[in-house]
């Protein structure tokens, strides 16, 4: 079990891959961070070289003081000083012996802390903003190229008149939308065409195509389901099951004890689990007996998980009742 747990922990580092795979904005941000890292590494190398230069001078002048005996010790001491963690305790013994050393250490603090660190922050900000601007421009250019190529391709599949006038026929655009939205029926495809060309004169120029097609592709059409007595009763049953399940869980997990409750706890739990399974079966309507689905129906994944949870709860109630009986 420990080995499986450790493997699950290590595999959790792969979770961001799904985010970058799904989100284009996440990939753009990752590319911008990659550009920033390359620039920041160069700036940090300059800062480390600056610290090394000061350390070479310090180990020659102040080699008699602790922390500056050799180049490595001086470099480590000045690196700590650049983070202001040991300022001014690291150079106070030197200052007490030689007051002129204040010029050296103050120059180093001003150069490393106020100049180099501010340079790092400004480089990070400017590089990130420039990278995001370039990515946005590239994305916009790619979108324009894709629209232009799509317009030219649809011209070839149109009639002779559309090719001569450099226009796209609405029929060809409808076929393309049907390929892009295979789950849409004819009514939804016609609704998308109304967004692109409400006049429906038969042809679309490139200006209209460029402005209206992206808007149509961003539009999500939802089918309205009629509210019937069956759907209202189903929603009422779902609400009753949810409330009763919440009350049941609170009473079972609390310190409430009564003789009558101990005798009805198992049957009530089994009844709630059974009603939950019945509600899910009616809501999914696998056999299409009722022909009307609930307006708040979830997708198959969540409905399946809920059905599995209900069956597991029913099995648990049965096992507990058998255990108590024994």
Query: What is the overall silhouette?
Result: flat
C-alpha termini separation: 31 Å
Mean pLDDT: 76
The ordered string of helix (H) and strand (E) elements is HHHHHHHEHHEHHHH
Number of E-state strands? 2
Oligomer: single chain
Evaluate the radius of gyration.
Answer: 35 Å
Report on the biggest sheet.
2 strands, antiparallel
Strand order of the largest sheet: 1-2
Q: What percent of residues adopt helix (DSSP H or I)?
A: over 70%
Uncertain regions spanning at least 5 consecutive residues: 292-299
**Continuous helix count:** 13
Secondary structure category: mainly alpha
Portion in strands: under 5%
What do you see in this structure?
- With 326 residues, the protein is mainly α.
- Helices cover 76% and strands 1% of the residues.
- The chain has 13 helices and two strands; from the N terminus they run αααααααβααβαααα.
- The chain has a two-stranded antiparallel sheet.
- The radius of gyration is 35 Å and the shape is flat.
- The model is unreliable at 292-299 (pLDDT under 50).
